[in-house]
Write a structure and sequence with these properties.
Number of domains: 2
Oligomer: single chain
CATH topology of the largest domain: Lipocalin
CATH superfamily of the largest domain: T3SS negative regulator GrlR
Shape: elongated
CATH architecture of the largest domain: Beta Barrel
Strand order of the largest sheet: 1-2-3-4-5-6-7-8
Strand content: 35-45%
Distance between the termini: 37 Å
Length: 199
């Protein structure tokens, strides 16, 4: 199973980058000012590691790095951030419109899925690449508009379809109410902040 990033590589790069920046900062400061102690080198190293981690894990910066890397490597998992619209088809062939908001960073992916009669929030998501096919495992908790119906848990394995016109997600869903169906979504915006609610 493949996540968006490999944490072992991320930690290696952060450590190497921190060491390089710390040593360069140490020698620059030592030339400009008086000789510095090893304690100051450790302090510089800790501060540079903190800054590098903060920058790499901030959603805005990580999306920019992600976009740059995808320009050179099209097989990298796509950035799913944005507003999505589509429909759910139930096992009785009834269709209803849904809207989704996906917020994705290097560490987490969250999906808010809203329909006219239900709202779903993410319990767990896992972006994967299996047999060179991009997928998104999604487990959610749904709360119907009518409080008498009670909430339920469901899961979907989305196929991530990279079409020339737009990104699409398509998958079969299963719920603990023993219902099944299909969800089809298409991204209409890359903004990760929007109101998608029906009610």
């Amino acid at each position: 199973m493949f996540r968006i990033i490999r944490f072992d590589l991320l930690l290696r790069y952060v450590v190497i980058l921190s060491i390089i920046i710390s040593v360069l900062a140490y020698f620059t400061l030592q030339r400009l000012f008086e000789p510095l102690s090893i304690f100051k080198l450790i302090t510089i190293s800790s501060i540079s590691s903190l800054i590098i981690m903060f920058i790499l894990l901030s959603p805005w910066f990580s999306r920019k790095v992600w976009a740059c890397i995808r320009m050179f490597n099209k097989n990298l998992y796509p950035d799913l951030n944005g507003v999505w619209v589509g429909h759910v088809t139930t096992e009785e062939d009834a269709k209803f419109e849904v809207r989704a908001l996906i917020r994705q960073s290097l560490l987490i992916t969250e999906i808010d899925l809203h329909g006219e009669s239900v709202k779903s929030v993410t319990l767990e998501t896992t972006p994967t690449i299996e047999h060179n096919q991009k997928k998104l495992y999604y487990v959610y908790n749904s709360t119907p508009k009518n409080p008498a119906w009670g909430s339920y848990v469901g899961s979907t394995i989305f196929d991530v379809i990279e079409d020339k016109s737009a990104l699409k997600l398509s998958g079969k869903y299963y719920t603990n109410r023993k219902s099944v169906g299909r969800i089809m979504l298409k991204r209409i915006s890359t903004e990760s902040v929007a109101d998608i609610s029906f009610y």
